[in-house]
Structure formats: structure tokens, C-alpha cells
Amino acid sequence: MPKINHKYLKPFKNIFILIFVVFAVWMLFFDANSYLIHRELNTEVDDLEMEKEYYRNEIEKDQKAIKELSSDLGVEKLAREKYYMKKENEEIFIIEYEDSIPKENKND
């Protein structure tokens, strides 16, 4: 029988090292508070932080829009620009540039 090199197995003969290795493996992979679960939860927290920042920016934009629309001039500006409304006895001319007009397909 060939002689097996016991140089690498020698530390595992100590019961304390063996218990520590089993404990470390258990805590890293199998426990409810394992490293894998912590890593997954940390990525979820990071995603939620980015989502929170996005919604903060959206709230700021909406507050600016509400502030603009709280005055009569803001409402009038919105009505004219977005909905093309006009006052009585007033004409509106909409100028479109060539690059803003969608091109038609000649293959149809």
C-alpha cells in the first residue's frame, strides 16, 4: 500500500480546528444568516436605494410642475403649448421643421 502524505491532514486531527472548520462552513452556506443570504439582501437594499432616489427626483419634478400650474400664467402656458388652446379673436400658427415631421415609407 502506498504511503499517504499526512502533511495536509495533520491539522484536522485537532478537534478544535475540525469544529471550527465545520462551524465556518455551516455559517457561510447553511445557516439562516449565511453569507449568501446577506449578499442577496445587500443587493436588494442597493436596488431599493436607487429606486428611492429615482422617486425623490420624480417628486421634485412634480412639485415644480405643481408650483408652475398654481398660477394662472402657468395654466395658460400649459394650455397653449400642449393643447394648442387660444384666446378669442386670436390665431395660432404651428411651425413644424422638416426634421420633426415623420417620413413616409415609399415601399408601401
UniProtKB/TrEMBL annotation:
Domain of life: Bacteria
A matching Pfam family: DivIC
Transmembrane listed as a keyword: yes
Keywords: Coiled coil, Membrane, Transmembrane, Transmembrane helix
Coiled-coil ranges per UniProt: 38-72
Chain segments annotated as transmembrane: 12-30
Name listed for the protein in its UniProt record: Septum formation initiator
Organism: Bizionia argentinensis JUB59
Upper taxonomic lineage: Bacteria, Pseudomonadati, Bacteroidota, Flavobacteriia, Flavobacteriales
